[in-house]
Sequence to fold (780 residues):
Amino acid sequence: MGMGQVLQRGDSGVAHPPGRWGRRVYQGITLLAVVAGAITAVNWFSRSAREPDCVTASRTESSDRAVQICQREYQRTKLPATGALLAQALMRGGDRKTAGTLANVLLMTDAQADAFQILGRIDLDANRNEDATVKLEKARSLHRAGPDYVGLAEDGYYLAYLQIEQHQYIEAIKILDESLAAARLGNSAHTEGRCHLYMARALIGAGYFEGGQQALDRAALQLESEQDQASLWFERGKLEQEIDRIPPHRTHQAIAVAAFERSLALAKRAGDVAHVIANHLHLAYSLAELGQTTKAEQHLEAANNLDSKRTEDDRVQLAARIAYRSSDFGRAISLNDQIYPKLTDEDDQIDVSVMQARIALATNQVELAVHWATKGVESAQKIRAGQKSNELQPWVLASRREPFEVLFVGLVRAGWIADAFAVFDQWQSRSLLDAMARPSSDSAPEPSSTARKLQGTERWLSTVSNTPLMKGDKAAAMQTLAMIDLVAFAVAEGEVWRLTDHHGHLHIEDLGTMDTLRGEVDAFMTSPTDPAAARALGARLLPDDLVHGSDPLYVVLDAPLAGIPFAALRWNEQPLIAMRPVLRAPRLPVSGTCKLRTETNGALVLGDAFDDLPDARRESLRVAALLGTSPLLGDAATSAALFAGKSDPLLHIAVHTGLDAGGGTLRLYDRSVSAPEISANKLGPSLVVLAACSTASSQDPELARSLSTAFLAAGSDRVVATLRPISDVGARELTTRFYADHGVVDPVSTLAKIQATLADSDNKDWPNFAVFGSKVCGPS
Fold:
């Protein structure tokens, strides 16, 4: 069960337990401590002996005291501005009815803009979102015309809240960008801090965790009251919970607990009951995940004592999770059965389904496990099918892979092997697309650039999600398995499973936990040319009946194993590639009709863009001569030249590459071209040879943001790419031989022959090359 991004009503900045189990927890709750956007609370005992005026009281006094002072002053002066401050103080104290009555009176005065803002906030608290939007937009228009920059900024972050709740992160970021500028023009550090706090929520919701952290750090410099600090620490805790959901970072719950405990203490001192409840519930979740179930139960009971009715459904879900973590399966099942029919949020449904399926597996009720896991998969697919174009959050939540894993294990244990293969392929597709769409972090993100990136991701998703690589075809994949040999590895529920296919004969076996394999994997990854390391891991992974053959062995590796140079694994003393060609596939391959190339017309060769790779230059000249074309070198190796060759059947690239959180990049003379840009522009020549460093690598464990995957998603049939850095000399030796030995005609067999020869040489780069592809040639 994860922790999502849904905000508490009101300007206190409290966020209620979100999405997956707490989206409803504060809907309808009377807000006990609403802080006006422009008010900063200070200690009661710091007041001067003389009663302050309404303006000062609004900034420095408690809500009750501010109401008393502003009420007396408003009765005496009848000034609309004082009336607006009084209405804000009433809102702050939770008396929305009186505040609304007063705001309606102020609509006929020159405090009209503030009155519309107050009425919009009242609608916001009551979940009348459309009415709230209309009133806040009216206030925004009037404040802009004033101009009243502080009021304009406040209108913006209330409107941004509405957008965030609906996962409209692009719009929220745009509004907050304007609000930040207005707050600075209004010289209100506190209002600017509130804008940064809401900006953090929008960025975290969209998956920009580093940007969200930086926005929280900026807010911390400008928000000083205990209530504001409680909000900040609460958001920091939620950020850690979100990070914890995405492998391999699942070590953040303890950090989240520390943040929530600090927020809880501050909220108690500030008398913010709603925020106290939220912290108790989030602590119950994180402590349960850490196995500290006794403490989790104490926080759940504390939340119940403060609000025994309105958070009931969420508390039932948390109680079930605590029971599950305590191995009290009977109680967990009973509570889940009670709450599941009430759930409307798909993420909540996934959490409960996965928990029920895991309990069923633990108690050897395999068919029941398949039943519940199937429900979880259906909820995950429903999210994808009904996703709005700019609701990016579902694409960054790796926990939605969990129902697929549990279903796979259940199907294997039930003996339904073909179905297990199909589910494995389904989750490989989902993992690829989710990882490719996951937002990259920036060292110093600006709101406007982040919004542009999100819009670009929208456009990218609509293109790439409909490509053959991502859509797949279950029936066609099953037909293809009857024609080929394949070995695949899935990491599901902590276990490593080997899937093998020998022309339609399917088999799956459990190789043990990933932890038991980690030593051999790490040793081999460190030195793939070390025969001892290659033998040790080969003995664990290679299936004896598939190591020999003249046809390619298709290899599909799940995320934790995707970076393995599989061709270098040894069976006895021989590397696999010396016994059989290897073709790496991102998912189960699908056959098609394709002709072997016998000519080289239409080849594009780009190399040595910065005149600092002499061997790459010599390589490009030699390759171009073999292909009967002229290479584009130096300042001719540009992005325009690359995309102009979209229709060429063959592309050879020998330039510097980059690798960061955004994925792989080609460093061409005029600029760098990213992996997402390649797939979005459908740059997919039939054969692509990427003779550069780490072109099949990326920072995500699925290798989804690699350049090789980008070309496959764009439509390429085969991509020759590298899993790690390579030397200039080693790459030139391999690639020139590749073309001289007619690699254009049969890249898989040609590369295999060259690698088998180089395995006995001093060349250390040969294991790092691989052919990636997903198309199998059937009858033409």
